[in-house]
Amino acid sequence: MVRLSDLHPEEAEHMLQRAEQLRRRQFDHDATPWITPRPLTESKIALITTAALHRRDDPPFRFADSGYRIIPDDIDRNDLVQSHISVNFDRTHYQRDLNVVLPLDRMHELADAGEIGGVSPMHFSILGATEAFLLEPSAAEMAQRMRDLGVDTALLIPV
Amino acid sequence: MCTAAVGVLSHFLQRHGIATTSISLIREQSEAVHPPRALWVPFPLGRPLGVADNPEFQTDVLRSALGLLESATKPTIVDYTREAPDGGGDGLWACAIELPTPEVSELEASLRAEIDLLMPRYLEARRRRGRSTFGMSGAKLEQIDQLVSYAVAVAEGGGFDQIPASATGRDWTHPTPMLIRFVVEDLRAFYQESVTSDADAGPPSQHDMHAWIFRETALGRLIMQIAQLITDDDDPRLLFIRGLLIPEGFWEGGPTFGGPPPGEDPREFLIRSRRYLQGQEA
Q: Could you tell me if the ipTM is greater than 0.85?
């Protein structure tokens, strides 16, 4: 069981400061349109991870990188490395099983069972330590790519 | 930080026509940005689906997050109440390998001896898992000696901005001084994958893993030695790297990250530190 109270006090304080910064920013969340998605059985879904995963040959994420990397759905799992800069999160479970961070196998099982309409042929990765408001241009690009692929839905997963 | 990015990114994606749902690890950050749909999970950072090698549990988390696409009719944060079934907690794991006691001197020889001992387990784990997370510095496994040479050169005072001759010629993916962080992370990945190679034993908690590295291995001694050099250095920009090498709670001098010198604007300090760490500024 890990909640904020289970983190090291320095780390917990850091997380709370971040929440407070977000509040002070007065981001206009009401300006975001509500989207009523298609039924899950008809939705084609992409994954977006903040774990800074990328292919070995891709340039790694830099400190405060606001870009994104593409992870093909059929990627060789050994072709994925991680250039996230933070040392304050668990990596042993991810090292054993990619699905604990990027649940590609689980998504395909749901698709095969007919619970979701399909899995996007392309997923996306960002560096979650980057200041979030710098990510808007990358979000626009990712959304365009998804629409081009007939993907209407994204599941975002932090680490 | 990652949960904050997820929340804000959810808004941006919906503004471009993509319906989103998400997982939240830090509820307070999600509450601050009102993402369209978020499932808060009570799992350790780094484990958004809860636990490795447990498809049933992972699928349940996934169904719960995706289910919000059908159930939510306005911005919603829902709590996932099942705990991760990892038998977890700190202090339960013990490393099955007894490493030679690291000598007080001969850091490089101690590191190499540990790596030699761990190598069969690392290879076993890599073969069974079909993957390894080693290689983020750009080094291949057969170049692990160069990683050691570079890290030891830094730890022994060779400087943070130079790559010693013994480690040149590699296709490093990061500039100095940031490279040291990823070289250390590759060595840490090698150690962690090696000592969790037993498929039947559950992985250790994050705390236990770090405690083992810092208390029982020459790698831990290497990292602490680098951190001490950073601490003793006059350049406050380097303190960022200490925070990227040592998790909170394992640096006895207090918080692992530093801060701006007295009187300097924190944002200006962050910008010039970032330039330096990316190798864009001496």
A: yes
